[in-house]
Amino acid sequence: MRAREIPITAWIGLFGIALAVFCALFAPWIAPHGETEVVGGVWQVPDDQFFFGLDNLGRDILSRLIYGTRTTLLVALAATVLSFSLGIILSFTAAVSGGLVDTVFSRFNDLMMSIPTLIFALVVLAVLPQYLVVLILVMAVLDSTRVYRLGRAVALDVAVMEFVEAAKLRGEGKIWIIFREILPNTLSPLLAEFGLRFAFAILFLSTLSFLGLGIQPPTADWGGMVKENKDGIIFGISAALVPGSAIAALCICVNLIVDWLLKRTSSLKGGRGDA
Amino acid sequence: MNDFTKYLAGRVTAGGMNRREFMGRAMAAGLTLTAAGQLFATSAAAQEPRKGGTLKLGLEGGAATDSIDPAKATSQVMFAAVRTWGDTLVETHPETRAPIPSLAESWAPSPDAKTWTFKIRKGVTFHDGKEMTVDDVVATLKRHSDEKTESGAAGMLKSITAIENKGGDLVVTLDAGNADLPAIFTDYHLVIQPNGGVDKPTAGIGTGPYKVKSFEPGVRMTFEKNENDWRSDRGYVQTVEMITMNDATARVAALASGQVQFINRVDPKTVSLLTRAPTVQLLTTSGGGHYVFIMHCDKAPFDNIDVRMALKYAINREEMVERILGGYGKVGNDFPINDTYALFPEGIEQRAYDPDKAAFHYKKSGHSGPILLRTSEVAFPGAVDASVLFQQSAKKAGIEIELKREPGDGYWSNVWNVQPFSASYWGSRATQDQFYSGAYLSTADWNDTRFKNETFDKLLISARGELDEAKRREMYREMAMLVRDEGGTILPMFNDFVNAGTKKLMGYVSDIGNDMSNGYVASRVWLSA
Amino acid sequence: MSNSAEAGGSPDRSLRERFPLAAIIVERCLLSLVLLFAVSVLIFAGVEALPGDFATTYLGQSATPQAIANMTAELGLDRPVATRYFDWLGGVLQGDLGTSWASRNSVSEQVANRLGNSLFLAGFAAIIAVPLAIGLGMLSVHFRDRMPDKIINVISLAAISLPEFFIGYLLILYFAVDFGIATFPATVYEGMGFLERIQTIALPTATLVLVVLAHMMRMTRAAILSVMSSAYMETAELKGLSSWRAIVKHAAPNALAPIINVVALNLAYLVVGVVVVEVVFVYPGMGQYMVDAVTVRDMPVVQACGLIFAAVYILLNMVADILAIIANPRLRHPR
Fold this sequence. Notes:
The complex is a heterotrimer of chains A (275), B (529) and C (335).
Chain A: H1 8-30, H2 61-97, H3 99-114, H4 117-127, H5 132-159, H6 162-170, H7 174-211, H8 222-228, H9 241-268
Helix pairs in contact in A: 1-2, 1-9, 2-3, 2-5, 2-7, 3-5, 5-7, 6-7, 7-8, 7-9, 8-9
Chain B: H1 2-14, H2 22-30, H3 33-43, E1 54-59, H4 76-85, E2 90-92, E3 99-101, E4 104-109, E5 115-120, H5 134-145, E6 160-166, E7 169-174, H6 181-184, E8 210-216, E9 220-225, E10 239-244, H7 248-256, E11 262-263, H8 271-274, E12 280-285, E13 290-295, H9 305-313, H10 317-323, E14 329-331, H11 355-365, E15 371-375, H12 383-395, E16 401-405, H13 411-414, E17 421-426, H14 432-439, H15 454-465, H16 469-486, E18 489-495, E19 497-502, E20 505-506, H17 515-518, H18 521-524, E21 526-527
Parallel strand pairs in B: 1-10, 1-11, 15-16
Antiparallel strand pairs in B: 2-3, 4-5, 5-7, 6-7, 8-9, 9-10, 11-19, 12-19, 13-17, 13-18, 14-18, 20-21
Chain C: H1 2-8, H2 11-18, H3 20-49, H4 54-59, H5 65-75, H6 81-93, H7 107-142, H8 147-161, H9 164-178, H10 194-200, H11 202-228, H12 231-238, H13 243-254, H14 256-272, H15 275-281, H16 286-296, H17 299-327
Helix pairs in contact in C: 1-2, 2-3, 3-17, 7-8, 7-11, 7-13, 7-14, 8-11, 9-11, 9-15, 11-13, 11-14, 14-17, 15-16, 16-17
């Protein structure tokens, strides 16, 4: 596919993500102030010096936003990719194998979903050391149960199609079936889910931080920044809106790319192309 | 949120809200009820109270686990609720914290202050129509102090050896002289219940200005005026509704939209924004509660006095009061007493932020490497932010503080009083003696800084028995200096009680005893037309 | 089919073949009971493993060691863990969820109240959100890549990128404080009329709808798009069916499985995951009830809430699976 065939919306998405990655990589050079530096009054309104104004402690919101890209991108991306891989591999295996494997996997998944997140998180906290890796893993495992549900449902629909039966009769292995037959035919709902899970992961990160499982202060993350400034919302203070919009923008960018990939996959399948 | 308020309430009241000043007591005990009532009225602006209407309060600090049993009342909401449906033997003066009569009309100690006789008011009826007797009082006190008690007030009543009805008077015997006994009886756990509440602790029946109408723990509690109230200078509104609102923004929104007339715990950061609303008035009271960073004096590196000193100089107190308390508080001076206490040692030099001195002490200590400070949202409101500010101000002195945000759940069992350096909170106690005995005596139950100083211990004991006020004040000064210069407490700020009401809410009494007009807010205010 | 049943011989097999759906439901129900049991064990063990016990946590710092010991003895917390668990289990099997250690009230009574509130709010939000999401999803497919599709997409993405409390505060700010047209706080209590209740929960319902809408809508769109490219849809279009009818009559029914699952996930979220919305709107639901109980380790309440939450998940998952089977008859005869 050549560059000029990429639609404008996908370019916007790519540009947004490139910008975020750029911010993450070069934060110390492009941020006008320090990540944790107190530079003025609490919730000072935007002016020439502070483009987005100051936060709940008097730190520069723009600078924290730029620094916050690092953890936000890393954790959200890692957790989403991990939860997807885990959820999809397990759910496809269950759907293709059927029978006992399916029952065991699915009921175990039910069990995992049934344990309230609060208790799960508290127990994890009490038992495991609190590193970023642990945080990502916990988020991934919790999220993968949701992906599993969806993955199994779409895979099951495809697994009973004639062409999968045919492949089985041909004597193809399970892995071949999963990757060559089922995955391409279920990609569009899964990709759509991926785009949304990404946004959920950023928000989930800030929820966990209240339990003490999140990012350690004073490190900035976007979800955390929304939370830190939430008390101002009711008085019309824009400090929480800025990171909130950033999350929305990033999420929209990711989804613009997802939409483009969606279209590509449907044309790959040999259906009617799109206009 | 709940974890925090529960402990907060527990700690605010653990020492009772009592007045210790021996001299003032005799006089105060002689105050008539009318005089006390007039005092409330005058301090609350000379205006004729208007009767009737429904008062709605949006309060932080309720939970589904709240119990209406006063022995187990720990949350802020239950504190205010108990004050609304029940009465204690003794109350405190809102401005001086001196004990004044309530269900006990008067009291007198034996010369050694070991035996106390209380005259109990006659003609007072419970909400169920039964007349209150001395036996009810005896049964109540016994329930809170006997060996099977589960009461939050049990600690305060430890020294009681006998509670008796002698010829129609309540006689309490102690194992040692204690001039503070009447003040202890102001504690909100100790509301008088029929037969002490032994038969049905959760009945919610007392002698207070309002009867409990409905109670959904953690949701809502409603009250109706007790038409047979034995006092006429309280209980102006007809019905009271306490709604648990644990979200600060929800409380503010409810107040701004006029859905409730009173809220507690206004986030100091938003106060200036809140008061822009034309219908809202701010109700603040200064108190003795404070926010602290505590170091264990017996654990490395804090066993080195220069490390402690360096950190004390490395904190910017003014900035904290400004940014964490929104200006609603006062800077601290590294000892836990302020001018809301009697015999406050005035004129002690205020310690200020001094990066040079901090760097000097830090260098002298020979310590290097980051110092780990544990903090949590529940340590006090804004604790994580305050820790970040501390980290930044210390950085300028070349001291590296590493922050660790601990989970709110279990913070008080796993971190506070366990880890060598953490953020915490202390509520006010009735007297300097009570505070120091609870937290700074070598053998204190909650000596969370592991402060062990023989000179200090001796001073504390002798001050307790000293009746000469000047001498006693001097002793408290010495003790304050010891804590300030050698202790493990970094005390950047004392916080005010910040409540708010609509402009319709009249007669609010700023009571230095505790938050929410010492819990009496519902029965002291009225609503203008 | 009756032939094969006779050939199979065993009555169990014949039932299974005659009523495959019923057999699956019965099997799943039995498995669910086992799962519930496992959940209760896990929650009990988990909360037991957490630092801090009930008496110490509940009484706080005002407690004397004596008072803690008294409370522990009174509640029988000094007995071995296994004994306490089986005591509790015995009660549950007889339909008794026990008494809250903290408030000393019957757990069943309180839970019934709170669960009723939670289901009311969730149900109301679902009634609005599910049809709206699916309708918008189909609309989005119909106008795919044109303006309406793009607008729906961007708005829905923005809505889920904002935390629940953010949307909640904004709604409160505009509708309750500034315009004064909505009720706040949304506290419902016994003795409230139905209409009054609905009016009271308007704002939390709106918040929840906004939070769950995008997820279901995006999935509807993706799933239908996926089906649209298959051969029979081409046929439908060649036959001259209008695009809208093709979407509603042919594409949507074939895209049901993923949609049902995402709807089920969101319904579960509406029932068990709305603590934040409950706190912001001061709504007495299950979420806050459980958080309060976990905070002080009030085990009977934690266990009761845990069981109900688990039951909600298991039930919704089961319904989703069964609906998926009904939607795709090929799934009815698993090999």
